[in-house]
Design a protein that fits this description.
Length: 438
């Protein structure tokens, strides 16, 4: 609990209570200066345990109770881990009355500071039992019970342990073997000499523990289970591994650097025909080059608007990539234009696109045509969308029945435009064919 040096310091503080001029509040203050806050609890637990013994003198017991209360006085009363001990000591009818009155003064709030401004000896000398009413234990428990912490759960095995401190039945309560006039039992001879008391208390403090002396719970060791084949393979691991040669090691990376440089230019503006052919040639020769060319989903709209042919080739190479869903999401949500429809149209002819992606793109195209305010730009975009839809329908990229109502409403809304009227006639023709087929 605490070491030998701390035990000597704690004993010195307890013995300083015998000095008539030493105030209790000064002793508490010295305790706080001698022990750092992390060691408060260990020291206070040691005090609580030796209070059960009969080595401490009356003045020393008062000092111990003052320390237990004042160390945690700055916190809420219910936060003091020794509130339960103080309340139980105040309820003990076998204890000395001056001791019970002293604890009641500490627990109360009226005369707490006045009693701490006295020495332990002066308090006991001026104590008058007639001035202190002692309520019944039930009343005390009810009055201070809210400040006491609940009793911890005690295991059945722990209840069988022997306490570190065992009271001597031949010595009266709060006995001081150095004093004369104590009513010891006839024929009693002190087992501890006056010179050994300090050494005994110091040794007791430095060897206290909360566990006590418990009987060993002896259990037989479990039997060894039989060792199965292959169970201890890890003792002799198989190190016969086949070495694989990395053919890309020390490879020429100049092509990748050139493609990255051209892709960076392609994001800012159209490339020259020779530059565009070089990018397409390198991507065709090395499909994995697309993962190292610097293209990301965030940069795709710029590539689509400036170089749609390169964007189509890059997306074809990325179609099996885990990130292709991110590229499709960006392509669907980007602003509709001739280049974006060109990219989607070429993709539908080169690879098999998800049906949800195509339907969402068509829905966004129709919505863009309906929301545009410029009449000229609206007519131009409607023509592009109608041509785009006719291409998808004739090439059987989409099943028109899935979007029949939405596309038909689009054609009726823009029936003034020739391409929309042509798309409407195509829808009617397909509808009649479907109805005529068995």
């Amino acid at each position: 609990m605490i070491g030998r040096e701390e035990s000597s310091t704690l004993l010195m503080l307890l013995k300083s209570g015998e000095d008539q001029g030493r105030l209790l509040e000064d002793i508490v203050g010295e305790f706080k200066s001698k022990f750092p806050p992390p060691r408060y609890f260990n020291a206070c637990v040691s005090l609580a345990l030796i209070l059960e013994a009969k080595f401490l003198k009356p003045s020393q017991r008062l000092v111990a109770f003052a320390i237990l209360h004042q160390v945690y006085s700055s916190q809420e009363p219910s936060s003091n881990p020794f509130s339960s001990l103080l309340v139980n000591a105040a309820c003990d009818e076998d204890a000395e009355k001056y001791e019970r009155a002293f604890i009641l003064l500490l627990l109360g709030s009226a005369n707490k500071k006045e009693v701490l401004k006295q020495s332990a000896s002066d308090y006991m000398k001026s104590f008058d039992p007639s001035q202190y009413p002692f309520p019944q234990s039930e009343q005390l428990q009810q009055q201070f019970g809210v400040k006491a912490l609940p009793e911890p759960f005690n295991c059945l095995f722990k209840s069988n342990s022997v306490k570190n401190v065992i009271s001597d039945p031949d010595v009266p309560r709060v006995c001081d073997i150095n004093s004369t006039g104590l009513d010891l039992q006839p024929g009693y001879k002190p087992k501890i000499g006056s010179g050994d008391v300090d050494e005994t208390i110091t040794g007791l403090l430095s060897n206290l523990s909360l566990e006590g002396l418990q009987p060993q719970w002896i259990r037989p060791c479990p039997p060894m289970l039989p060792v199965l084949d292959g169970e201890l393979v890890w003792l002799n691991p198989d190190n016969s591994y086949d070495l694989l040669w990395d053919h890309g090691m020390c490879a020429d990376t100049s092509r990748g650097a050139a493609v990255r440089e051209l892709i960076a230019k392609a994001l800012k503006g159209p490339l020259a025909p020779t530059q565009q052919e070089k990018v397409l040639f390198e991507l065709a020769n090395d499909p994995k080059l697309v993962y190292h060319c610097g293209l990301t989903p965030r940069k795709l709209p710029e590539l689509v608007e400036n170089n749609p042919v390169i964007a189509v080739e890059a997306l074809v190479k990325l179609v099996n990539s885990p990130e292709i869903a991110d590229y499709f999401t960006v392509l669907v949500n980007m602003e509709m234009s001739l280049h974006s429809m060109e990219v989607v149209n070429r993709l539908t002819q080169a690879v098999e696109l998800p049906t949800e992606f195509i339907h969402m793109y068509i829905t966004n195209c129709i919505s863009s045509c309906e929301n545009i305010k410029d009449r000229y730009m609206q007519n131009r975009l409607v023509r592009l969308v109608c041509v785009f839809l006719q291409s998808l329908i004739r090439n059987k990229i989409i099943d028109v029945q899935d979007l029949f109502i939405e596309v038909q409403a689009f054609c009726i809304e823009f029936s003034r435009i020739r391409e929309a009227a042509g798309l409407f006639r195509l829808l009617k023709t397909l509808e009649n064919n479907n109805n005529a087929s068995p």
